[in-house]
Amino acid sequence: MRTDLLVDAVDGLDEALAAVDGFDAALVGGLLRPQPGQAGGLTGLADAVAGTPLASRVAEAAEKTADGAGDEGHFVALAAARTALLGSVHDALVARVEEATGRPTTGDTDAVPAGAGAEQAANLLVAARSWLSDLARAGWQGIDHELVGGAAPVVSAMLPDPALRRLATLLDGFAAELAASCPGATLERVPVRRWADLWSRAVLLTVPGAVSARAADEATGRLLPLGVDLQEHATAVQAQVHAVFEPADGGAARLVRASVSAPKPDTVVGAGLWQLLRPHMSLLAAVSEGRSMELDAMPLTGEGDLIWDDARARAGEPADAFATARVALPAAAAFAVAPLDRHPARIAVPVLLEGYGVEEAEGDGGVVFDVAGCRIAVDTGRVPAAGPLTPEAVASSGACLGLLRWDAGAFLLQPLAVERTVRKKAVAVHAGAWAGGTADKAGVRAEKAATDAVKVLRERAGKLLRK
User: Fold this and answer.
1) Phi/psi at 138 (nearest 5 deg)?
2) Is the pTM of this model over 0.70?
3) Mean pLDDT across the chain, nearest whole number?
4) Between 163 and which of 117, 350, 433, 458 could a Cys-Cys bridge form, CB atoms 3.0 to 4.6 Å apart?
């Protein structure tokens, strides 16, 4: 792996991000009566896409919005330009990763038009776009509970329709974040990039036909797990298994993902999270046991996501994740990313690093890997408490299997597993080692505590229902 390519500058990257930042800054104060500084951000966005098919529409939108006469159509054009710029950043970074890893380039997948359901719900899409436009006019510093509360009836009307649930969930979560920050005039710190990301994505999802149905397939063959990325929220948890899929027909190996999510009470944390997820995915047990899985016609989306069905999978032979990373991973190609999902924050590429030196990062006490003179930051903050992997284990490792991400202008590594030497023997430590159950003392204690918490909550819920 050529780590030097990961620290080299990418042509045009800074300019594209500067244009995005300029527009994001305009959203802070609002687009109803933009100040001269905000108008410059709008013009910069238009200039950045001047050589694209969006040029004329975005130029008009920027001019009208700068004059305080921007309408919903203009805001859609601005959101499209911002998304296109971040998409170009995503593509440039992914191309750099593919060059560094030497893997096959990501292929394109065909998309088919969205179904007719979008036309039937046109009134709800218009209502959502109207609310988002009001947000843009007010700006993040101008939000209040009355404005933010306008999303509630739209979300309630959308949720019963599966075709609109994606947008409804986004609007619901976005409105909740804004409500927790009201009034905007008193905010000391605004999450400028995040709220602009959520706003622009939601705006484009209100355009009929913006979401394409990716060509689906069925996967039959061997699945070789690499590791688990556990993502926890106060009320929900998700485990995403990254793996290499080897088709039974001898086709090229591909990088795939399988995810499982569950709601959770905020008292269930640490290793107890696995109790909520295990019943829904047998793959978690295979990860813990270091086994492959044999898939039979498992649904596979055009973006490489397995729609997991336990009835279509069975446990296979032992498969060491590090052996998979050394032998199968270098030849595995990723799937293409849908247009609206092309964003730098979405980059999560499985890689294996070996033969590095370990240094302590300046200031935050983190870890940096020195690979052939190139320093790669390690995001130990993403290591979940629901497994035996710790920052200390990462710091004493000699090989690391992780996800290559991009944040704050640089590539960094999220560890999924490490190899370290204990009594002259290589010992692997996996973040998802407790996913299917564990005999580890610390894991057993954490599971018992979670079991007790869930039992108490069920008893209380039962009492409330009986009343």
Assistant:
1) -75, -35
2) yes
3) 89
4) 117
